What we know:
46% of the residues lie in helices and 12% in strands.
Amino acid sequence: MNLGLSGKSVFIAASSKGLGRAAALEFAKEGALVTIASRSLGQLEEARDEIRAATGQEATMVRMDVLSPDDIKNAIRHAVDSAGGLDILVTNAGGPPSGFFSDMGDEDWTGGFELNLLSAIRMIREALPHLKSAGGGRIVNLASTSVKQPIDGLILSNVFRAGVQALTKSLSSELANDGILINTIAPGRIATDRITELDSKRAEDQGSSLEQFQTAAVKAIPLGRMGTPRNSRVLSSFTVRSPTRT
């Protein structure tokens, strides 16, 4: 299926591993001009090499800490300069610390806000002028299924991922006249490093092994398995019908 992504300039945050990296690979397979961004240059190089080996495409890479406004500005500018514009923005960030309400102080709440909500706001703000000048585009915010149903022990993620969804819904009306579509992707249990980290902590709290905890968790999934980054439908919201960038 042709998603109309060939030649499109795509910026993907936190794309050195997990869902971000899988999305970058799939965009490259569709012929998009991909810019990948992460704090870790080593992991970015691995992602770039994987994309090159699988697709023959050369992804642009740029170091970016989503907590840094300057990094975000520089990374978006780098993507625009490298590809001659910007058509698609994918916001993404790692999860905040796990825990319950009683575990969290002001610093935790401030950190979760900056990591998961303010970072998306900043990326969108920097990308909008370029999307508008392109005559339209797409924004997709990677969040969590917790935007529909909060997950026990993830109070910070529950609150700020829901904030991302509220941002998405609000901007969907504001940006429609500019030809910019915005959506939230809310994946469930996807086998990433983040899930392993969370499951390990929960297993320890319960006095069980990681394998025992994950076996029990998978039983609650109708398909009887966790998803993987490669089989998640991240690209389903990205079809772009504006003229191909040359």
